[in-house]
Amino acid sequence: MDQHQFNQKLIDFLASSPTPFHAVDQMAVRLSDAGFERLHEADAWQVVPGGRYLITRNDSSIIAWTMPTRGVLAESGFRMVGAHTDSPCLKVKPQPELYRHGYVQLGVEVYGGVLLNPWFDRDLSIAGRVSYLNQGGDIRHGLIDFCQAVAIIPSLAIHLDRDANKSRSINAQTYLPPILGQTDKKDDKLDFKALLSQRLEANGVADVGQVLDYELFFYATQRPSLIGLANEFIASARLDNLLSCFIGLQALLETDTDQGTLLVCNDHEEVGSTSASGASGPMLKQMLERVLPDSEERGRAISRSMLISTDNAHGVHPNFSDRHDDNHGPLLNRGVVIKLNANQRYASNSETSAIFRKLAADADAPVQSFVVRSDMACGSTIGPLTAAEIGVRTLDVGVPQWAMHSSREVAGTADAFNLGRILRRFFGAEQV
Question: How far apart, in whole angstroms, are the C-alpha atoms of residue 27 and residue 59?
C-alpha cells in the first residue's frame, strides 16, 4: 500500500468513526474479517499458540493481540502499541431539551479540553450509543448516527459584540447549546428519546420498546480531506487520536510475525483515563492476567515487552512559532515525534527512545523530538499511565499536528504513513 492509498483508507476510517463507539465497532469488524477471534470477558478463554484475539469493554475500548506461534510469552513478551479512542467534543446532557424564543436546542456538556471557538458555525450531527428496552423487556444497546447536519451553533454577529476579535470568552452553559429547529406552539415539545427510538428503527433495530439512556455526542459533518498544493496535509476532526488507532490497527493487520503483538486503544484519555475502560483502569492488566495466569511467567513476559504509546504531538504553527522550544519544534511531514518530559508527563527514556530510533532508521523514516518550553505546562497521554499500571517499558511518540482539540485538526500525510512503517517493524522485531 502506497502513501496515497494509506491516507484514503485513513480518511474513510475517520469519516466512519464519529464517536469512540463507532471507532471500536469499525476496528472490531476489520479485525474479525482478518481472522481475529472475538472473546467476551464474561466467558472462559482458551488461547492457543498462534491464536489471534480481540476483546472490547464498554464498546469504546479495544485490545487485539496475537499469541506467538513458537516459544512462550515469558521468553519473548509482547510488542505493544497503545492509543486512545476519544476526542474532545460536546456531549448531550441527560435531559437536554431547551426552548428559547421558539427555537429548539439541546443542552451539552464539554467533554475534555475542547478548543471551543471552532465549534461555532459548523454543520453538526449527533452520534453515539443508545440503551433501550426491547419488546421483550430486555436491555439492549445500539449505535446511531444522524449522518446529516441537524444542528448549528451560530456565532453572535460582530455588530452585537464589537470586541469579538480582541477578546471573547465562551460561557459553556449559555453559549454552546446547538439549535436544532423552530416551533411556533408552546406545547409542541421535542421528545428527544422518541426521536432516538425513531433513529434506531431507521438503522434497522426493529424491536425498540423504550429508550432508557444514551451517550451521544455532537460532531462536525465536514468530511476529512487532503489539502495543500501537493496534498501535504490531512484535515479532519478527531485526528487526536483516531489517527493513531488507525495506524496501529493497520500495522497489526499488515504484520506477519511469529512474535506476540498487542494493540490497545483506550477510551476516556481526554478526561483523565480513570475508568474501567481507561488506561488508568484495569482492562489491560486483567487481560494479561488471563492470558498469563502464572504471576512468575507474566512478570517475565512484561519485562521482555515494550509499549509504544502513540498520541499526536504539537507541530510548530508558523504563526505562533514562539510557543515552542527553539531546538524541539516538530514540523509536519518531517518525521514522527519522540515526546520527552523531565517530569514523566511522557514515559520515554533513553532506552526506549534508542530502540525507536533504531526501528525508524531501519525503516528509513525520519524522527524528531519534542520537549515543551520550560516555562509552559506539559500535557500527557496513556503512556505513563499504562507504564505505571503494568510496569512495561514505554515510549511516547506521535505524529505532529496543528489545531489539537479543535473540531478540525491538521496533520501531515507523510508522517502517518511513516509511523505505520515503523510500527510494522516493531511488531515484527525478534527482540526489543
Answer: 11
What's the pTM value of the predicted model, to 2 decimals? 0.96
Residues in the chain: 432
Question: If you search the block for the grid coordinates 466512519, which residue do you land on?
Answer: 16
pLDDT one-digit tens code per residue, 116-168: 999 999 999 999 999 999 988 999 999 999 999 999 999 999 999 988 888 88
What does each C-alpha distance from 111 to 86, 272, 408 come to in angstroms?
9, 11, 16
Q: Provide the grid cell at 357.
A: 530510533
Per-residue cell: 208: 425498540
CA distance 210 to 140: 10
- Closest to 81 (Cα-Cα) out of 352, 411, 343, 350: 352
- Could you give the CA distance from residue 26 to residue 289 in angstroms, rounded to a whole number? 27
d(CA 267, CA 276): 9
- Name which of 250, 385, 212, 216 is nearest 307 in CA terms: 385
Chain-centre distance for alpha carbon 365: 24
Cβ contacts of 291 within 8 Å, gap of 6 or more: 45, 47, 65, 67, 73
Give the whole-angstrom CA distance, residue 193 versus residue 130: 9
Q: For 156-193, how does the pLDDT look when each residue is reduced to its tens digit (9 = 90+)?
A: 999 999 888 888 889 999 999 999 999 876 667 888 99
Q: Could you tell me the domains of the chain? A: 3-87+237-428 (3.40.630.10), 89-220 (2.30.250.10)
